[in-house]
């Protein structure tokens, strides 16, 4: 495979999931072809490539979980599985001619800003390159998080994370422990329960689970969406509108979530007849504080006779024996960690060194903060897709990604406006977010987040960092975010320049 040493690109995009591919498409639509997409794996797909565990599917309706510029009229179900979403991303890659720009098996090891040259120096597993602008689209759900459990190294059986599923290992007839009760576990447990001899679920906190109103999309519907694009657009608009109307309950009026809780409790009582088990599975915090999950099969699986629930976290491992915090023990052959990802301590932040010689992780040691979810102060010409405070609690992240792509497009236009050189680097410009602008923007966000269900609902979630600060969720509608990211405000940035040579 060819080395990258000496290559220079106008834009380097890191990652080829929804964010990275979306950025690549938008750059091409802006007339920019001098860009590369650096992908650590051998194929596109991001989290939808990595998360291939049994039962993996999306909890956002299919027609809302696609790019507006690349609708898919042939979704087979109202909620799509991992296989179909990954196939969609492959289709987008080919439809928009992105493969020549992608450098596969090319993991980014380090990014360093060169203030003299006004460009990024990028070290990868395939060599070095430079880029005028770097776009991090690694996403918050890309680095699996496995807790540090004493004695785990002594376990003689199989251990893997849900995002690194070992498909060569046969779970049939095995005693399996699933650690965690988040979105992945809710899909994994009912998928493997019929196969295993015994399944032990270690549950620190029970999730709120709502019915999954899913069905197959028939051929007539698919034909209609394909032949009459307005029908698919209308369906998407209705799905979007319903979710926009829900935002107020999450952000301003958490008491209004009571009806949703009643539906979830009805769902629990209908599926689980044992009162003692229902007590174990009933959450003790406000719905919405953690991610609300959708499943029709999770509760029935937990009620099966070959399933044990340990209402406590995993404390230690001694050989094949797993010991919970409450002292309960389980003998198992395999451990599946469904324990989430490094969201507020993302690895790319430790590998990115800015203008002050500090890493993004060091700058964010008191909490992630970026202007409009995109620009961190001291990191010129560096943009994050799905950056701080851009995640959602009830709608499609594709909507947020497309808003950030608007911001990326205008960012590049602003750079062009400030470039006044002959094209050899002289007269080049860079934009660096002003610390005062970043601070003002994030102070407003934190004030809005103060009364949201994510901050007041009485739970500990991945929305909060180690200090309890909410640096992940957007406290408004997707329409508000689109307005906030429609254009770059030049007053919020400092312009850095390499002076052009004097005229004759």
Question: What would you say about this model in short?
Answer:
The chain has 504 residues and is α/β, with parallel strands linked by helices. Helices cover 31% and strands 18% of the residues.
Topology:
Elements: E1 7-14, H1 18-29, E2 35-38, H2 47-50, H3 82-95, E3 102-103, E4 108-114, E5 119-124, E6 127-136, E7 158-161, E8 175-179, H4 183-192, E9 198-202, E10 209-210, H5 219-227, H6 229-251, H7 258-271, H8 275-281, E11 293-294, H9 298-302, E12 307-310, E13 314-318, E14 321-324, E15 329-331, E16 334-337, H10 347-350, E17 352-353, H11 360-363, E18 382-384, H12 397-418, E19 429-433, H13 435-449, H14 453-456, H15 478-484, E20 493-497
Parallel strand pairs: 1-2, 1-6, 2-3, 4-17, 6-18, 7-16, 8-9, 8-16, 9-12, 10-11
Antiparallel strand pairs: 4-5, 5-6, 13-14, 14-15, 19-20
InterPro entries: FAD-bind_Monooxygenase_sf, FAD/NAD-bd_sf, Flavin_mOase-like
Protein name: NAD(P)/FAD-dependent oxidoreductase
Family: Belongs to the FAD-binding monooxygenase family.
């Amino acid at each position: 495979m060819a080395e990258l040493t000496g290559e220079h690109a106008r834009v380097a995009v890191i990652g080829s999931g929804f964010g990275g591919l979306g950025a690549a498409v938008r750059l091409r639509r802006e007339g920019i072809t001098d860009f590369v997409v650096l992908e650590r794996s051998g194929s596109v797909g991001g989290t939808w490539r990595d998360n291939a565990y049994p039962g993996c599917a999306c909890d956002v309706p299919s027609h809302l979980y696609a790019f507006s510029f690349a609708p898919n009229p042939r979704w087979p179900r109202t909620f799509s599985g991992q296989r179909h979403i990954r196939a969609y991303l492959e289709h987008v890659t080919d439809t928009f001619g992105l493969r020549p720009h992608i450098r596969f098996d090319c993991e980014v090891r380090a990014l360093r800003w060169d203030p003299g040259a006004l460009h990024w120096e990028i070290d990868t597993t395939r060599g070095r390159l430079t880029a005028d602008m770097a776009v991090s689209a690694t996403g918050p759900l890309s680095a699996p998080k496995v807790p540090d459990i004493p004695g785990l190294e002594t376990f003689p059986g199989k251990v893997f994370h849900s995002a690194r599923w070992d498909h060569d290992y046969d779970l049939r007839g095995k005693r399996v422990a699933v650690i965690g009760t988040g979105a992945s576990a809710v899909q994994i447990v009912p998928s493997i329960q019929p196969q295993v001899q015994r399944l032990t679920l270690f549950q620190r906190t029970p999730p709120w689970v709502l019915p999954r109103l899913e069905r197959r999309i028939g051929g007539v519907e698919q034909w209609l969406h394909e032949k009459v694009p307005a029908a698919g657009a209308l369906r998407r608009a209705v799905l979007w509108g319903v979710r926009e109307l829900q935002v107020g309950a999450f952000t301003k009026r958490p008491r209004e979530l009571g009806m949703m809780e009643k539906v979830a409790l009805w769902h629990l009582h209908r599926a689980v007849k044992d009162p003692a088990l229902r007590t174990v599975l009933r959450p003790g915090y406000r719905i919405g504080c953690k991610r609300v999950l959708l499943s029709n099969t999770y509760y029935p699986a937990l009620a099966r006779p070959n399933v044990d629930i340990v209402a406590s976290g995993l404390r230690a491992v001694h050989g094949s024996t797993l010991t919970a915090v409450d002292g309960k023990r389980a003998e198992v052959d395999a451990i599946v960690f469904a324990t989430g990802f490094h969201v507020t301590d993302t690895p790319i932040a430790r590998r990115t060194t800015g203008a002050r010689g500090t890493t993004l992780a060091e700058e964010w040691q008191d909490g992630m903060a970026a202007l409009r979810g995109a620009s961190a102060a001291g990191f010129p010409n560096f943009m994050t897709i799905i950056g701080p405070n851009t995640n959602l609690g009830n709608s499609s992240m594709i909507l947020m990604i497309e808003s950030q792509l608007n911001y990326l497009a205008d960012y590049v236009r602003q750079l062009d406006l400030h470039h006044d050189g002959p094209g050899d680097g002289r007269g080049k410009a860079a934009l660096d977010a002003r610390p005062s602008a970043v601070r003002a923007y994030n102070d407003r966000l934190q004030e809005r987040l103060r009364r949201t269900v994510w901050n007041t609902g009485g739970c500990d979630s991945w929305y909060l960092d180690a200090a309890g600060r909410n640096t992940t969720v957007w406290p408004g509608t997707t329409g508000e975010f689109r307005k906030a990211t429609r254009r770059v405000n030049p007053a919020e940035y400092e312009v850095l320049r390499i002076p052009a040579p004097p005229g004759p």
